[in-house]
Amino acid sequence: MISQDSSYPDCESTCSKVAELKERIEELEEVVEELRREKQELRGEKQELEKKLNYQKEKYARLWKEHRKFVGGPHKPSSKKTRAEKEEEKRRKRERKKKESGEGDTGREDEEDKEDKEDEGKGKPGRKPGHKPAWRKKPDPKEEIDVTQDKCEDCGNPLGDPTDSHTRMIEDVPDPEPPTATQFNIFEYYCDPCDKKVTATHPNCPDEGDFGPNTLVQATLFKFEERLPNRKAADLLETLYGLEISHGTVFKLTERVSKCLRPHYESIRRELRGAEALHVDETRFSVGGENWWLWSFSDNEHVLYRLVNSRGSNVLEEVLGEDFDGWITSDGLSAYPAFTDKLQRCWSHLFNESEYAADRFEEAVPIDEKLHEIYNHLNEFLEEDPPPSKREEKREWAMNAMKDLTEKEYEEEKVEDLITYIENGMEYWFTYVVEPDVDPTNNQAERDLREPIVIRKIIGTLRNEKGTRIFKTVMTMLATWKRQGLNPREEMLKAVRT
């Protein structure tokens, strides 16, 4: 290609456009050169920043390894805490109780002596020396067996008459028995007044399937009471009774039992709709690999579980109804005030927040101490069963004392979060002072969820909605029967045979 300069030597002198373009080219070349310099500088800065970032990552990894045992949160479950965290919590509780009792600082030596005594007491499991023993009551024997011997087992010498004797009471379970097979000859009739066919029924002959009530109940208890997977439940039925069934059949058996229990489940829901006060809580539960929510509703006699893919107030409305007029003790989830104003916020959750902040920020210590002081004072006041007028006065006093804490200014962001937490529940912290049927904590609901949570950890997830119906129905009935002091096996047999 021939250059323009050699082909047209006089263009620059006669064409102004060419001159402008050459100037523009020179300017762009300068810009390019400047950009190259800036790129080089930025590359150097990037390398420096990468060095700093790598140093921070190494520092973070080192600090995390050293201090992760102290990292937690106010709602971290006990099963997730390290031994060091648990020991630290115990130490803080001892210090807090010491302050509340007004003992003050008795010196490091006394504290060490006290800890040494506590450690000595915790050296061995079981009851401590000096504790009165509790002997297991021995049953009356149904059979007596004389244990005799004719000859010495070492030399074969005849032993003659016994010289002494003693007794031992042995309890044992019967040998596993094979399953029984019963043929039911079911007769059909015709009712003239009703103009319909009537089929005779028998309590030991279920409407569906080939297995009797005992098999249905035992498989269900293995699954939900003993927390066994379906395969393990099937293996145990074969080991104990010689009953060979597949793990899929175990699922079918639990489904049939849940259908028998369903009317009882709905009856419990109707009972809770008329309750004076309830404890309600919720926790995550995997269904088909997705996050659903397991809700628990309970009073002093009933427990009901609901497993749905919602954490909103619609669940409360569905279970309790639009006209529910009882009190609810709960945590700070927004679904509760969206459903009703008759609430009691949980003080255990509040103490978790305040103690967590007080352990990390000095300015949160007075807040935590004041909250414990208010709570302890109210409990002492309520022990005397005061009249309604005195209860209302004390409620106003407590609310004003708590408001004094929230009106102060705080520097730490976490402490401000604690104050916001207190303010959001201000009208619900002291319901229990004026309502004797209401508890100040939601510990009952937390306990209600423990057993389902253990099963959740074992099974990981429920596969479908059919599994959720079985789970919530059976778990509801087991928890309710236990709360009422009834035998789950006997009650389940009654329901299946009805």
Automatic annotation (TrEMBL):
Coiled-coil zones: 11-59
Biased amino acid composition, Acidic residues: 108-118
Record protein name field: Transposase IS66 central domain-containing protein
Domain Transposase IS66 central: 211-468
Location of region: Disordered: 66-176
InterPro entries, per database record: Transposase-related, Transposase_IS66_central
Coiled coil is among the record's keywords: yes
Compositional bias annotation for Basic residues: 124-136
Organism, scientific name: candidate division MSBL1 archaeon SCGC-AAA259M10
Basic and acidic residues compositional bias, start-end: 98-107, 137-154
Record-linked PANTHER family: BLL1576 PROTEIN
This protein's UniProt keywords: Coiled coil
